[in-house]
Q: What sequence folds into this?
């Protein structure tokens, strides 16, 4: 059956039609204007997530966050999307707060968290995850601070003839991209105790034009690491 919060505001006007449906394995997001797309689910129990967890704390994301240095850091995943990075970090020992401002994706996150907490294979990691629906800018404007803030804003695809992976395409249709991404860095640095980690495509410019303290580079993406003005000792 359709979920009460079915279509995102403004989608119909742009020719898009999205609906949340209670499927057999959890909440699903259907793009009805793209009948060739499979429903999108947020599942932290799939093989790719397990592979990334098994890779441990020496993988690029974990090293960028500092899991090899900091014990159980608190991490604000300020652009959570489907929460895959955030859940991997939680499984590796971080205390993760996920924030997602797109309400349909936030609903998928909440559903994934509920299922993960009920599954013996994932419940330990899931207990270290919290999900918030809302705007990260507003959340970072409060008094709370985190050891690390993780930012993974969308970046425009270089080749207009090449379509990104389907889940990213759906997210772009729902949000119109992250046009305010550059504005996230300053408030992130204000609430980060140890560092801010920004995931970027390997070719992308620095967020906000600001050079990081250091980088960790992979084949297709890199992690730009920024240190607050007065980092923790």
A:
């Amino acid at each position: 059956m359709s979920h009460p919060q079915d279509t995102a505001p403004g989608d119909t006007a742009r020719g898009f039609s999205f609906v949340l449906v209670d499927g057999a394995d959890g909440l699903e997001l259907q793009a009805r204007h793209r009948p060739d797309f499979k429903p999108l689910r947020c599942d932290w129990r799939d093989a790719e997530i397990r592979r990334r967890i098994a890779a441990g704390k020496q993988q690029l994301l974990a090293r960028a966050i500092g899991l090899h240095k900091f014990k159980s850091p608190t991490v604000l995943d300020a652009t959570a999307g489907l929460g895959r990075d955030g859940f991997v970090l939680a499984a590796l020992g971080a205390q993760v707060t996920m924030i997602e401002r797109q309400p349909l994706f936030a609903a998928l996150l909440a559903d994934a968290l509920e299922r993960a907490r009920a599954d013996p294979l994932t419940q330990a990691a899931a207990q270290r995850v919290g999900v918030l629906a809302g705007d990260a800018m507003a959340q970072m404007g409060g008094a709370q601070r985190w050891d690390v803030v993780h930012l993974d804003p969308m970046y425009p695809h270089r080749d207009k003839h090449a379509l990104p992976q389907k889940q990213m395409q759906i997210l772009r249709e729902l949000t119109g991209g992250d046009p305010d991404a550059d504005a996230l860095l300053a408030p992130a640095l204000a609430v980060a105790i140890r560092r801010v980690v920004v995931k970027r495509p390997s070719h992308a410019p620095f967020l906000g034009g600001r050079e990081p303290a250091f980088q960790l580079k992979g084949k297709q993406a890199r992690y730009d690491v920024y240190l607050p003005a007065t980092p923790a000792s």
